[in-house]
């Protein structure tokens, strides 16, 4: 499901697909991962920045995410400097945000929480 269809299908998903617990999680996720227009590439994406104690912890987090991303064949764009990791998720096939981005964002949040 891509960004262009996201808003129109969101209400349908709320009513039909997601149980209450998942719906609560989805609204929290979208508040934490902010949506922005990636101007240089003309596509929509979600982005979040993570801070860790040091480079070793940041790199360990990136390793966990890399293993999951490879397993689900959906790879993030990221930037790392010392203890900071900035991750951008977008589905290139549809030029926007898809359920694959949301699923990976959930895993990334869980992985970051385990590091603390």
Structure write-up:
- The chain has 116 residues and is an alpha+beta fold.
- It is built from 4 helices and 4 strands, in the order H-H-E-E-H-E-E-H.
- Strands 1-2-4-3 form a 4-stranded antiparallel sheet.
- A hairpin with a 2-residue loop joins strand 3 and strand 4.
- The longest helix is centred in the middle third of the chain and has 18 residues.
- The span between the termini is 32 Å
Shape field? globular
The SSE string, one letter per element, is: HHEEHEEH
What Rg, in angstroms, do the CA atoms define?
Answer: 15 Å
Q: Please identify the structural class as seen in this structure.
A: alpha+beta
Beta strand %: 15-25%
Task: Annotate the secondary structure layout.
Layout: H1 3-16, H2 20-32, E1 34-38, E2 43-51, H3 55-72, E3 77-81, E4 84-89, H4 99-115
Antiparallel strand pairs: 1-2, 2-4, 3-4
Helix pairs in contact: 3-4
Question: Summarize this, please?
Answer:
The chain is an alpha+beta fold. The protein contains four helices and four strands.
Q: What features would you highlight for this structure?
A:
116 residues; alpha+beta; four-stranded antiparallel beta sheet; 4 helices; 4 strands; 53% helix; 22% strand
